[in-house]
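Subgroup meeting minutes
Present: P.N., E.W., G.H.
Scribe: E.W.

1. P.N. recapped why we're keeping a running log of single-chain structure predictions: easier to compare across weeks, and new members can see raw inputs and outputs side by side.
2. G.H. added today's entry (110 aa).
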Amino acid sequence: MAQESTNLLQGTLDLMILKALALEQMHGLGISRRIEQITKGTFQVKPGSLFPALHRMEEAGWLASSWGESENNRKAKYYRLTKAGRRQLETETERWGRISLAIARALEAS
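Output recorded in log:
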């Protein structure tokens, strides 16, 4: 079941974008495809959600961007993690680990 990114819990989209960019720089469509891949199709991020998030994260200093050519020889903006972005990825990963553990415990409670 595919979900639009606006249905994601607050902060989840940021975490997915940071994770998608952890290994290499990518353009927007590549980020969207990577998120769909790493979530095994659970999340499909639409441009209307992705690009405002990328812009906000770039303003926060977590991402840097530069123009380049895509696979099909079109001009594309490529995003990469900054040092602050790598720290934010660690912080968000730890936070979501705690949240998911707390939710799992709550669901197991009798």
